[in-house]
Design a protein that fits this description.
The chain is of the alpha+beta class. It has a single domain (36-472), classed as Penicillin V Acylase, Chain A, CATH 3.60.60. Helix content is 36%, strand content 20%. The chain contains 17 helices and 15 strands. It has helices at 7-20, 24-33, 59-69, 71-89, 93-104, 110-125, 132-139, 143-155, 193-196, 255-265, 269-277, 327-333, 344-358, 365-372, 400-404, 422-426, 444-450, and strands at residues 43-47, 50-57, 169-174, 184-192, 201-207, 213-217, 228-231, 235-241, 286-292, 297-303, 308-313, 316-320, 412-421, 430-434, 470-472. A 9-stranded mixed sheet has the order 1-2-5-6-7-8-9-10-11, covered by helices on one side. Strand 1 (43-47) and strand 2 (50-57) form a beta hairpin. Helix 10 (255-265) runs antiparallel to helix 11. The radius of gyration is 24 Å and the shape is globular. The termini are far apart. Mean pLDDT is 90; it is low at 1-24, 26-32 and 396-407.
Length: 477
């Protein structure tokens, strides 16, 4: 039987259906709004100035989730670092992209090449325009501007436009030094406020291979980079840079790739050291502070380019404040003045010595929080954040010219802090405080008005206010 519809009846049925069917452009827009399958298992939340992201799966999936969930933050960081680096290192972004392709990429582990390309894919799915070389350059935000560029400037007969940073205050303690005999570790991040105010990501990474990790970091960067990481293999990792370090091997493996591999695959101090030494390029030369939660052993691994040393202990404290320790490394690879008691690194070293003696046998996470927020200047005995205190605020110090080599009142200092102990690390947990819990709140607009030399930072700087300590752990909801 054939059923014939009247024109009026067909019109009444088909037109509403056509109106309900999205046009091709609408269909495409709706498809873009639907979460891709690669996002399965990932999530994001914000707490007390931090952005927490849980990422899991093989490298391409972890990368895609990273790029998708942090798309806005990656775009913003790329927006501000380009003019910042152009001004402070006298090299434009094209130079950093070329360096990423020709110097860095050949030494990046295949796994992390895939992850970086995944970040690019996730970012592009959210409308981002950055490509592989932008992301590689971003991942080398520490080692290229402050290590490769000074080395290259010298090779080209130029006065170096930048130098290795002298930032961060950190410690790791164990045995009779701590309240319960187990490891306690803390770190605060010193940097310029343009980048530092954006150093507010907590990554909970569950890779297909290797150990689960909890770390702080920057959007778009695959390693902690400041560095503060605990992994499910029982390893606790942090560091401070070596002040006035000089040296770089462009044929070596990028530091960000080696550090990520060490944090993901090492479950002992020896394994961490071996991975970091393999292909060492001298980039981001550090005093690494390490803890093995299985044995209670801690270590200070000082890694330059030509020299390295390893100190170990099951009963004591290692601390870092950007001072090198090995005499040979100091002589051959740095311009560090061990006799300048008022320098940032030496003054903070003196303050660490005071605190370690005062708190011996009582160090725990609460003491660690106090250490990382300490604002006592060991050279004067007075309280007040400056470049000589463990929690630093260089923008209020007239000695900033010596520390930063730019000009007085350069806007930089401590931007965030983290602390953990052996019991928390068993569960991949740490405490973190973003911003300025102590000292003055940094107001970007007011700073630029008061210091017109930094007018070029308008639109790049942002406020850095106080936030409370917040506890982070795996699968936070």
């Amino acid at each position: 039987m054939t059923v014939r519809l009247s024109p009026h009846f067909a019109y009444a049925i088909l037109v509403p259906l056509l109106l309900l069917t999205p046009a091709p452009a609408q269909q495409q827009q709706q498809a873009q709004q639907q979460p891709p399958a690669l996002l399965r298992g990932s999530h994001r939340l914000e707490r007390d100035g931090w952005i927490y992201v849980h990422l899991e799966g093989p490298p391409e999936q972890i990368g895609f989730q990273h790029g998708w969930l942090l798309a806005a933050e990656i775009k913003d960081l790329l927006r501000v670092v380009q003019p910042y680096l152009a001004t402070t290192t006298k090299r434009d972004w094209a130079f950093y992209r070329q360096t990423a392709e020709t110097v860095l990429w050949p030494g990046v582990e295949p796994e992390y090449r895939t992850e970086i390309d995944g970040i690019v894919a996730g970012l592009k799915a959210r409308g981002g325009q950055a490509d592989r070389w932008d992301l590689v350059a971003l991942n080398a935000l520490e080692e290229v501007p402050d290590y490769y560029v000074p080395w290259l400037d010298k090779q080209q007969g130029k006065k170096p436009a930048s130098h290795s940073p002298g930032n961060c205050s950190a410690f790791v303690a164990t045995g009779k030094a701590t309240r319960d005999g187990r490891i306690v570790m803390g770190h605060n991040t010193w940097t310029n406020y343009i980048v530092g105010s954006r150093w507010n990501i907590v990554f909970d990474l569950v890779p297909e291979r290797g150990y689960r990790m909890l770390m702080d970091g920057l959007p778009g960067v695959i390693v902690s980079d400041d560095d503060f990481t605990i992994n499910a293999g029982g390893l606790l990792v942090t560091e401070t840079t070596i002040s006035q370090f000089e040296g770089f091997d462009p044929k070596g493996k990028p530091e960000f790739s080696r550090a990520r591999k060490a944090m993901q695959y090492a479950s002992s101090i020896d394994q961490f050291v071996a991975i970091m030494l393999d292909g060492n390029n001298g980039g981001y030369a550090n005093d690494w502070l390490l803890g093995d939660n299985h044995t209670g052993e801690i270590a200070r691994f000082e890694l330059g380019l030509k020299h390295h040393s390893l100190e170990r202990s099951k009963d004591g404290v290692f601390f870092g404040a950007n001072f090198p320790s090995d005499p040979q490394l100091i002589a051959d690879e740095t311009r560090f003045d061990v006799h300048d008691a008022e320098s940032s690194a030496n003054a903070r070293r003196a303050r660490w010595e005071q605190l370690v003696e005062k708190w011996h046998g009582r160090i725990d996470v609460e003491a660690g929080k106090q250490f990382e927020l300490d604002v006592v200047d060991a050279t004067t005995g007075k309280a007040g954040a400056n470049e000589r205190t463990l929690f630093g605020a260089v923008e209020i110090s007239p000695r900033g010219v010596k520390q930063w080599d730019w000009a007085p009142f350069f806007p930089g200092g401590t931007v965030q802090s983290k602390v953990t102990d052996g019991r928390m690390a068993e569960h991949l947990e740490f405490w973190a405080a973003m911003g300025h819990p102590v000292g003055p709140e940094f107001r970007a607009a007011a700073f630029v008005v008061e210091h017109p030399d930094y007018a070029w930072m308008r639109g790049l700087l942002q406020d850095l206010g106080p936030h409370p300590w917040s506890r982070f752990g795996p699968d936070l909801k």
